[in-house]
Amino acid sequence: MIKLNNISKIYEKNVVALDNVSLWFKEGELVVLKGVSGSGKSTILSLIAGLVKPTTGEVLVDEKKISKIPDHFVSQYRQKNIGFIFQKYNLISSLNVSENILLPLVPLNLKRSECKRRLESVLKQFSIEDKRDTLVKNLSGGEQQRTAIARASINSPKIILADEPTANLDEKLSLEFIKILKDLKSQNKTIIVATHDPLFFNLDFVDRTIEVNNGKIIS
Amino acid sequence: MTLIPEILAIYILDALFLFFATIAFILSLQIIKDWNFNATTKLQYSLEKKSYLGSTIIKYMFYVKLPLFLFFIFTLDKISFILPGAMCGAGVVNSNEYATVLLFLKLINIYLFAYWIVLDTQDMKQENQPYLKKKFMIFIPLYLLLVFEIALEYKTFSSINVKDVVDCCGAIFSTNDNTYLSKALSLPTWSLLGMFYINFILLVLSAVFKYRYIFATLNLLFILISLLSLVAFFGTYIYELPTHHCPFCMLQHEYNYIGYFLYGVLFIGTFNGLVVGFIRFNARELSKRLRVSLLFNFIYVAVVTLYPLIYYLRNGVWL
Amino acid sequence: MSLLIALLASTLFISNAMKDEYNKIISTYPDIVITNQKALRDSTIDENEVNKLLAIEGVSSAVPRVWGNYYFLNADKKFLILGKDEFETYPNPLLNENLDIKNHSMLISLGVKKILDDNYYHNYFNFIESNGSIKKMQIQSLLNTKESLKNPLVIIMNKDDAQEIFQYSKNEVTDLAVTVVNRSEVAFVATKIRILFPSAKVSIKKDLRVFYENVYNLRSGFFLTVFIITFFTFFIIIYDKVSGLNSEQRYEIGILKALGWRVGDVLSAKLYEGLIVSLFSYILGISMAFIYVYLLNAPYLKDIFLNNYDLIGDFKIVFSVDYNTLSLLFLLSVPIYIAATIIPSWRVATLEADEVMR
Question: Mutate which of C247, C259, C268, C357 to test chain A, going by most A C-beta atoms within 10 A?
């Protein structure tokens, strides 16, 4: 359902992030992309989310060439299908929890009641109900993480992408995160995690592990 | 004449329009030349971004043009006070040959810009953006018309001469002279009214059967017949004076500004009617537009018919 | 930006208020004034010509008037002298009621009293006629003038006395004031009069109105030009500010785009922001102007408008709402501000999400 065909991505100053990579992902899979920083795994995630366009090659999601369609529609595709959890969370610090979580819904022009319903549902799901009006900068690391995940889930995406989600967490919170991940997998979402955290390497509910090094796939 | 603050304000906004429209014009040229939807080059991506700028500028101009047009009419009214002989905007418009053309040009431009915006909205709804190149090609003549309009506006205002005596609308719209206008105004009432109502009925019928092109053509006719019948017949009931045929005076507050309402409703109705002839909408959008057009045209017909009816009910006679 | 709007709004309000005052005053003037001219210079007219005027259809009254300016050398000031005939009742804007003036007496305004007092004339004043002889006039009382029209230097006396001071002969008057029954007939009657008095200047009230209207348009046009220049400076400043977005803002936009916001969404959000800001400043500016002009009576700025030109001395500004002016100001502020934000907003909206988040 997600296909990367002969993808190369070259950034400014001839930095080669990916070199002729071809990958595919099945629906409902949980895949771990293993590799050190700068190996290109983040780029793979960005490509799938449509955040960057490949230098050569194409990205297909459900047979749709998202690498070819105009930015306007890629964003629409992203709105509906992708939930992204960033390495640095990328929450807007001047807003509170609820506002951050609702952000992806704004362009969808849903009814107020619907937005509220979804908000309540994810607040509950990730146990941050009592923090809904707190400003992000006043949250703990774990709470911020849960907010980020809630934000990524609120539009009920089919695909969840996580970029180094546990990089800034201690072991306890990392394990909590893994637990949440397991829950999400049970909802039949396609999940791709890019990480070099060894905690992920031997999990039983991970379908595949792909190793990425220097822009090429190793295994 | 130039130093009236209202005219100065119009000039300022015109200058702003010129500036932005020219940017959009240059963008349009680039897009027309190099747009290749399927290309994945840097050029194409930058053109995509530029197309957003182009749309935004054109949309902005339209949304500002609307209140500006109203303001323009206000200003005409205000100037009419200063010009000897004029008692409403009609006198000003008639005072020099540029002004009438300017008025019509402004109206046409509003229709055209509105059409562009509908085209743009449709274009953005479909992933392959079918109208992209087309809409920017259409902007080229639109731009020229806009420039022409602004130049004409400047010429009109600067040549209004305070010392010339001007006709008031009683003279302009009289049925005595030998002009086309007076001939049209002195058509027998029944044939005029007949054409008006029959046109409307045909509109309804063609909408029911979804004959796009016929509907659009009928709307075009409807604009002409409505204006004519308004000036010749319905207007006299608004003013309650059988010889008062002016299309401008009904914009003044003595008549509760009914003119603005009528013209506004007429515009919305006929614009939606016209646009279905030019753009192929999907079924749902088409019926929506047809309904809107019919509704507003109906409101126009209803209100305009009410005036003579109420007059008759109140006074027992026709004018 | 609000301040600018407030300034402009105030000037427009003031000039509008003054225009209204003028219109009020002028409406009490006679419809047509006939002034004889010799060699295109104002001259006097025989009061018996009035009969010719009364014969014209549509004329409800025709009154000969005696008035003029008298130069008081010692104080270097001009007095406006109005001659009043006991039989005349045409409404005079300066007077609240019809006054009974004794022979060789006069009524003076406050301004005149002050000047006379300064020159040691307390109960009477000596006018010097053009042949050198002196005409002594008693001061009967002070003029009770309407508040808004404290034209400082007005003297009212009987017509004969005025005629003497001006050295008119008994039948000579300054001009003839005509009132016409039907307002829309005024132009027509004026034409008839012109035929009757080919060498006279026939001024119509409407022309006066138009004249003052133009004068005020000129003045507000001047201010507008000043405003434009300042505004363009602002334009540039705004542009600069919005486009030089700091990295924090770019970062946030990047996040939004990563979350699925389209270019259009970001653009609309930024433009709405601009709209709200400018609307708010507009309202704030107008409110400030309202307070300044109508509540505080516009100190300082008012004086720029009033100079010797005018009929009006000092006046209290009456509250009135002029939609024309308000919409003018709106059109000048809001669309321009938004225009200034278009390009910067677009630049920002089309940033690659990826670039700003690295």
Answer: C259
